[in-house]
Amino acid sequence: MPVRKVQKNGRFKVGLVQMACGPSVARNIAGTKKLIAEAARGGAQVICLQEMFATQYFCQAEKQEYFKFAETIPGPQTEEMQAVAKKLGVVLIVPLFEKRAPGLYHNSAVVIDADGAILGTYRKMHIPDDPQFYEKFYFTPGDLGFRVWDTAFGRIGVLICWDQWYPEAARLTALQGAQVLFYPTAIGWLPPEKAEFGPRQYASWETIQRGHAIANGVFVAAANRWGLEQPEGPPGLEFWGQSFVADPSGQIISQASSDRDEVLIAEIDPALIEAQRHGWPFLRDRRIDAYQGITQRYLD
Known about the structure:
Elements: E1 12-18, H1 25-41, E2 46-48, H2 76-88, E3 91-101, E4 104-112, E5 118-123, E6 129-130, E7 133-134, E8 148-150, E9 155-158, H3 167-174, E10 180-185, E11 188-189, H4 191-216, E12 219-224, E13 226-229, E14 237-240, E15 244-246, E16 252-255, E17 262-268, H5 270-279
Parallel strand pairs: 1-2, 2-3, 9-10, 10-12
Antiparallel strand pairs: 1-17, 3-4, 4-5, 6-7, 8-9, 11-14, 12-15, 13-14, 15-16
Helix pairs in contact: 1-2, 3-4
């Protein structure tokens, strides 16, 4: 399929792939490819997969055996998705477990352009270590910094899951001209906590990302998985889905369900970025002369 190029600063459509993952890597990849094709048929030109799309969220436990899921970049998963991107003429954001060297691993996302070429890699900068989110056991923090890429359709930035909570990450990516901040994600509830804390946890997740859209005057697109995953048995994690796209004013313009595989498609209009920044000129009014303390861990 030929690449469907658009004019610079023209509108383009993004697609988010939301799905439940099972224990079979092959089936997860096959299911993802079907949803990518569905997104492309729906007009999506830049398609983002969920965090570590090919596996269940194995970080619920610290086990050496799970390092078997890691791959080099390029590697089998990357090459398979390069072929998909070229065939469909779409840009793909492909999050995976990167094996950089023996004993050195990252939680990464590969950006593949619509001709199948790899534009670059983002390595997750912020690594959590919480109950059933034991990522520090597996992943080294990213060392490539915050990056943007000029794709066939628009200029995009990619951050990953736990990065969602850090306004500095969103700001530094937006300051490089990203029109969309993509957040491939794997977030959900610990089932025993859902009744008491579930609504406020979800609300916090949505609110912080809508805040990034507002503060930076950009589109934000978060692709999350859904479903109960119990690779280590109960209680597991219940991923809440509800992938969404917010516009530069922070309004949600498209949102997925919480209980099914789904493709979410939304249009990105760069003119809305400029209009929002004219009316709410936060970038203009930043006091860059007064922010020296931001690089300190804490101001005692």
